[in-house]
Design brief:
The chain is an alpha/beta fold and 417 residues long. It has 19 helices and seven strands. The strands form two sheets. Strands 5-4-3-6-7 form a five-stranded mixed beta sheet, with helices on both faces. Strands 1-2 form a two-stranded antiparallel sheet. 28% of the residues are buried.
Length: 417
């Protein structure tokens, strides 16, 4: 069919020749159909205004049929947000102020446009408020104020509160604890805030994010408050906590969950204990430490530690003392089968979660408040839930080993199928 025949075939649908020509021209221009200034936006605007006219005429017919004294009384102009861009709407009025339009209610500022969903989706991808404004204008021709965007994203705050206070499983086989730091404006100045993450694996092997917390700094006492919160939300028991090398962390955990095994992250320990090793020795020292934590048994690890001490004790006594001091919590993973060891010798799983966050919000330097930080990170994580909320690999075998090792303490929490 030729272009001319296509134009002619539209005549039955769109009698207005001038509008028809403009619509065809817009289609062939390859420009977005729904954007500010688009002829299709103009058509939608015209339709909405005509439908409002129809509503007020029906209303006035009812008024006259009921012998009520009432007349039309001009219009109220306003701009309405829509997926087709901003629409200039003229809402009819009546003298008695009884007319209530159904299509565009009084106070309504959006035309069932999904603008809220678009704002949330863009914000969840790590965009700042100004980025969201710019993208809405570019993609949809929408002019939305920063205040409006903040108000839309604030609608998720009750959802966040409900999520942060939800009841949790009574037992978690493994819980990873770690913190990441962000800049937040606090009392007129930007300061670093510790963002605490609690990431767990339940008895059925399901990974889940148990909580998100913000505080002015990372410390064992503050982690203690996080653990108390988990307790209040129903977590009765945790088999293994995986943590970094924070001073006082073990004591804080033991106070709330005295039966739990604490596994300090080997990767953190190697990194922190080799900070002051000479460059020329670094490779050899790290290789020596690797023979310790890759040993198959505690006895083999102790032998490797003694050999390491003979080789490096005179030069790096402080490094050796730090490993000896934390020995029980560094080697705890050797008491478990190989499949579980790989999961608990490091806090990498929760750090992978942090990498997801950093990737999404890498372009943002700071947040206006703790609430803004929590809001955006929550949305980012929920938007990418499939990347972290999944079953632990090979869990059936691990489940059997845990049931054998812990007996009723573990097995009573299994879901009957």
């Amino acid at each position: 069919m030729t272009k001319k025949k296509k134009k002619d075939s539209l005549a039955d649908l769109i009698p207005d020749a001038e509008l028809r020509e403009r619509m065809v021209a817009h289609l062939y221009s390859k420009k977005p159909l729904l954007s500010e200034g688009s002829v299709f936006s103009e058509l939608l605007q015209s339709m909405v205004n005509k439908m409002l006219e129809g509503e007020v005429e029906d209303f006035m017919d009812e008024e006259r049929a009921s012998n009520r004294e009432n007349k039309r009384n001009g219009y109220t102009a306003k701009e309405l947000l829509s997926a087709a861009g901003p629409l200039s709407i003229r809402t009819p009025r009546d003298r008695n102020a009884d007319f209530e339009p159904e299509l565009v209610e009084k106070g309504q500022r959006e035309l069932s446009s999904g603008v809220d969903e678009q704002v949330i989706a863009l914000y969840a991808q790590g965009n700042s408020v100004e980025d969201v404004r710019r993208l809405l204008g570019k993609l949809y021709g929408l002019s939305v104020s920063a205040g409006k965007i903040s108000a839309i994203t604030d609608k998720v705050l009750p959802e966040i509160q409900a999520w942060r206070t939800r009841r949790l499983r009574s037992l978690y086989a493994v819980i990873y604890l770690d913190a990441v730091h962000f800049k937040v404006r606090y009392e007129g100045q930007y300061s670093s805030r510790a963002f605490y993450t609690v990431y767990g694996i339940d008895a059925e092997g399901q990974r889940d994010l148990l909580g998100l917390y913000v505080n002015e700094s990372e410390g064992a006492s503050r982690w203690g408050l996080v653990l108390e919160d988990l307790k209040e939300r129903g977590v009765e028991d945790v088999l293994i906590f995986c943590t970094d090398d924070l001073s006082g962390f073990s004591e804080a955990i033991s106070e709330v969950y005295p039966l739990s095994v604490i596994q300090k992250c080997i990767v953190h320990k190697v990194r922190s204990s080799t900070r002051f090793v000479d460059d020329k020795d670094s490779k050899a020292v790290r290789k020596g430490l690797r023979t310790i934590y890759t040993a198959t048994t505690r006895e083999a690890a102790r032998t490797a530690m003694e050999a390491f001490t003979v080789a490096w004790g005179s030069k790096y006594g402080r490094l050796i003392a730090s490993w000896e001091e934390d020995w029980e919590e560094l080697m705890a993973f050797l008491d478990y089968p190989k499949e579980l060891r790989r999961m608990i010798y490091t806090t990498n799983p929760v750090e992978a979660l942090h990498r997801i966050i950093r990737k999404l919000i890498k372009g943002k330097a700071a947040w206006a408040s703790d609430t803004a930080l929590i809001k955006q990170i929550y949305l980012c994580l929920m938007h990418n839930e499939k990347s972290w909320k999944r079953s632990a690999y090979g869990w059936k075998a691990i489940q059997r080993d845990l049931a054998k090792k812990y007996g009723e303490r573990f097995s009573r929490h299994l879901v009957e199928k």
